[in-house]
Write a structure and sequence with these properties.
The protein is mainly α and 225 residues long.
């Protein structure tokens, strides 16, 4: 069985879109982040969905980058490395929240609350070493990676350039999150999620026919003589 590069590229597009959809989905259903909620079914469901989102997003952005590797240049490489590292950190934290924190909830609730407070902004009453630093680091990777990757997509003119701009705007909107209540700040993820869906569709569609400079399939074909 031969697996073509075009088919793999379309798979990456589907995974990018799946990641964006899951990123949006988990925001309104995410339980409160404390030791009392981590043993519930909703917490486990959100955790597994987040891990799938992170893996799908990583594969998706690598596929997007490889489709335009020459056109995106160093900016695209920097963007995919930074944004990809954000997805790796997200997976690691989701893994810990889903499989490590629930068994500890009864024995060490202060530790669990402190660990979850890294991203909720609630703070911690226990020593967590360097872990609290990873929250701001992940946020920085998210913003810089999203901006650079989106700009590279816009400049490359391979995929839909408007999706690249939406990714830039979505990443920058995260800078407003500290000014909002935590529950409301979650919805800053929606523009980035929509951008990933859009980019995934654009990546999938460009493999099915000639594309314009916006990454959109042509509906017409040139006349032959």
């Amino acid at each position: 069985m031969t697996v073509s590069g075009s088919r793999l590229t379309r798979v990456a597009g589907v995974l990018a879109a799946l990641s964006g959809a899951l990123y949006i989905l988990v925001q309104p259903i995410h339980p409160a982040e404390n030791a009392a909620t981590v043993t519930g079914g909703a917490w486990a469901a959100v955790g597994w969905l987040t891990m799938i989102m992170a893996v799908s997003g990583l594969v998706g952005i690598v596929g997007i980058y490889l489709r335009q590797v020459r056109e995106s240049g160093p900016t695209g490489l920097a963007g995919v490395v930074l944004f990809g590292t954000f997805y790796l950190l997200t997976w690691a934290f989701a893994f810990a929240e889903t499989l490590v924190m629930p068994p500890l909830a009864a024995e060490a609730p202060l530790f669990v609350d402190g660990f979850l407070g890294i991203f909720s902004g609630a703070g911690t009453q226990v020593g967590l070493g360097v872990l609290p630093v990873l929250g701001p680091v992940a946020a920085l990777l998210y913003v810089l990676g999203g901006v650079l990757f989106g700009l590279a997509i816009f400049r490359a003119r391979v995929l839909d350039r408007r999706a690249g701009l939406l990714l830039v705007a979505g990443a920058l909107s995260t800078l407003l999150v500290p000014l909002l209540p935590h529950a409301a700040g979650r919805y800053a993820a929606v523009p980035v999620g929509l951008a990933m869906i859009w980019l995934g569709y654009s990546l999938w569609s460009v493999e099915r026919g000639p594309a314009t400079d916006h990454g959109e399939p042509r509906l017409d074909t040139p006349a032959t003589t």
